[in-house]
From TrEMBL, chain A:
Segments passing through the bilayer: 12-32, 68-90, 102-125, 131-150, 179-200, 233-254
Superkingdom of source: Bacteria
Cellular location(s): Cell membrane
Mode of membrane association: Multi-pass membrane protein
Name of the protein: ABC transporter permease subunit
PANTHER family per UniProt: PUTRESCINE TRANSPORT SYSTEM PERMEASE PROTEIN POTI
Species this chain originates from: Hohaiivirga grylli
CDD domains xrefs: TM_PBP2 (cd06261)
Keywords linked to the UniProt accession: Cell membrane, Coiled coil, Membrane, Transmembrane, Transmembrane helix, Transport
Domain ABC transmembrane type-1 residue range list: 62-252
Alphabetical list of SUPFAM superfamilies matching this protein: MetI-like (SSF161098)
Length: 289, 305
């Protein structure tokens, strides 16, 4: 049954990936363009990277954005994991329907609505807008994504491991720390990364909830992009794309190695089992059909 | 579950605490803000800071109700600008979702039919753009679609067109932007259902003399229905309220409600009217959002071993 892609499917994939990657690739190429015009190739140059390095407001914004993403992703991971445990493990508690709704709705809710509503909340409770209001807003948005990632891991998880720990006398907290947490940890890590990226990327909600002195990188980029294509932003984008690509590829290689190791171990176990069964069959002289 | 709760008294404390913390958080920062939006949508614009009449006067209940005003909603119904913006948002989101299905389905199908060893890599290639900034990915299209942009240069150099196409600043650019930015959201749920499909069903149909396109319509599409529903809702709902794409690619010609809300808020500083726009938009989206939640809950529960 092993066969390669048909010509139709191969063409579809080639066009699909070209569509997804060509625009990004062009952006990267043109960030090294010596000409200020986007469409005229004026030779190779790194001048826009130098200009970027001297653009203090942009660097300040990048620093704020990184701090923001780190803080909000940390808090979102804790809250999102708790919510996932509540949804998967606590059965039908009171208010579950509303709870499920509040977990799934922020993911699809248009950002303009979420941003506006959070801003009006902060104004109503007279909370000064700035770094912390954006942080709270990002936690609210991103924790739901963490919940979904962790939830899917918890659902496919073998409960008998926890039961075994409890039978051996572990308290629920010990069971959670020593059994549950290590197993769901990769999902929690993935959830954190997702929350981090979403926070790094958000323009709309940050624009609504931010105040003076808390201009994030996307807000800065947006205000420059509205004025037209600037090579400096191409350079900034290339750096961001590079960081993401390195991160994703190294994470991919790490998990791939782990999967390969696991597959190898499984194969060996299966071979050993097969050998055992064969031996047992030979002993009992069962006709092998 | 109950057995475990009885076995250990401590579990009961945790049992309330674990759901309570995220519940309270979402109640405070997700549910409560909507009530405030609703409240302020019923308020009057005022040249003050914040720019609306205070409606927080809890001490005087009768004054509280008399301060409510439906002016903003009347204005939304009365002014064709807002109605046009709503209609055109829904139309653009609907067409984009159809285009996403047309583009995403063949990709998801090809991925699900690829050799098993390729699939993790193909999946990673679909997800990877999602990790790079949304704003940057949209921005990249400006350089391509501009009148003197790369697409026009290419088409003119191969002699397909004699003068530049005017794509930038039209709805076509918005469609391209939405399809490009939302493609992973369409492909992933479709792939998830198509991958689980039993391929021998198609083979059986073909053995019995069914032409490929009929096998596709009568077997693949019905079996992929949960993925089609999830993917379409996941794209349609945020697309209706999209702001960045129509703002950067659509120009002043494209009317979309996310843009209207943004400009009412930031340019006109009419917060009550912006709130009223948000409430109406939310009413439009309640049904698709509930459908999406049900689909997701079902999918999550099906994942149980």
């Amino acid at each position: 049954m092993k066969r390669s892609l048909g010509p139709f499917n191969a063409t579809v994939l080639a066009f699909g990936f070209a569509f997804l990657y060509l625009p990004i690739l062009l952006l990267v190429v043109y960030s090294f363009n010596a000409s200020r015009l986007v469409t005229v190739w004026g030779g190779f140059s790194t001048q826009w990277y130098v200009a970027l390095w001297n653009n203090q407001p942009l660097l300040d914004a990048a620093w704020i954005t990184l701090r923001l993403a780190f803080t909000s992703a940390t808090l979102a991971t804790v809250l999102g994991t708790l919510a996932a445990i509540a949804l998967v493990r606590y059965g039908r508690f009171r208010g579950r329907t509303i709870f499920t709704g509040m977990v799934y709705a922020p993911m699809v809710m248009p950002e303009v609505i979420t941003g506006l509503s959070l801003l009006l909340l902060f104004v109503a409770i007279d909370f000064d807008r700035g770094f912390w209001t954006v942080m709270l807003a990002h936690v609210t948005l991103t924790m739901c994504f963490v919940t979904v990632v962790v939830q899917s891991r918890l659902l496919t998880f073998d409960r008998s491991l926890e039961e075994a720990a409890m039978d051996l006398g572990a308290t629920p907290l010990q069971t959670f720390m020593k059994v549950t947490l290590p197993i769901i940890f990769p999902a929690i890590g993935a959830g954190f990364l997702l929350a981090f990226t979403l926070s790094l990327d958000d323009l709309v909600i940050a624009s609504f909830t931010s105040g003076p002195g808390a201009t994030t990188l996307p807000m800065r980029i947006y205000s420059q992009v509205r004025l037209g294509v600037t090579p400096e932003i191409n350079a900034a984008s290339t750096i961001l794309i590079g960081i993401v690509a390195i991160g994703v590829i190294s994470a991919g290689l790490l998990t791939k190695r782990k999967i390969a190791e696991e597959a190898e171990a499984e194969k060996k176990a299966a071979q050993a089992e097969a050998a055992e069964i064969k031996a047992a069959m030979a002993d009992n002289e069962v006709p092998a059909n | 579950m109950t057995v475990m709760a009885e076995r250990d008294g401590k579990k009961i404390g945790l049992r309330t605490l674990v759901p309570a913390i995220p519940f309270l958080w979402l109640g405070m920062f997700f549910l409560l803000p909507f009530l405030i939006v609703f409240k302020i949508s019923l308020s009057q614009y005022a040249t003050a800071q914040p720019p609306y009449e205070p409606v927080w006067n809890w001490s005087d209940i009768s004054g509280y109700f008399s301060a409510l005003s439906f002016e903003n909603f009347k204005m939304l119904v009365g002014d064709s600008l807002y109605i046009d913006a709503f209609v055109s948002s829904i139309r653009i989101a609907f067409i984009s979702t159809l285009l996403l299905l047309l583009v995403g389905f063949p990709i998801a199908n090809a991925m699900a039919r690829a050799p098993k060893s390729w699939r993790p890599m193909l999946l990673a290639l679909i997800i990877l753009p999602f990790w790079t900034s949304f704003l940057i990915r949209i921005y990249a299209w400006i350089a391509i679609l501009k009148p003197e942009g790369l697409l026009n240069q290419m088409l003119m150099s191969i002699g397909l067109i004699s003068e530049p196409l005017n794509i930038m600043g039209t709805e076509v650019a918005v469609f391209i932007g939405i399809v490009y930015a939302y493609l992973p959201f369409m492909v992933l749920p479709l792939y998830a259902t198509l991958e689980k499909m039993d391929e021998s069903l198609i083979e059986a149909a073909q053995d019995l003399g069914c032409p490929p396109w009929r096998a596709f319509w009568t077997i693949t599409v019905p079996l992929a229905k949960p993925g089609i529903i999830a993917g379409s809702l996941l794209c349609f709902i945020p697309a209706v309220g999209e702001f960045v794409i129509p703002d950067l690619l659509g120009g002043s010609e494209t009317l979309m409600i996310g843009k209207t809300l943004w400009s009412e808020f930031f340019s006109n500083r009419d917060w009550p009217l912006a709130s009223a726009v948000a409430i109406v938009l939310l009413c439009f989206l309640v049904i698709p959002i509930v459908l999406y939640q049900n689909a997701e809950t079902r999918r999550a529960e099906e994942g149980k071993p």
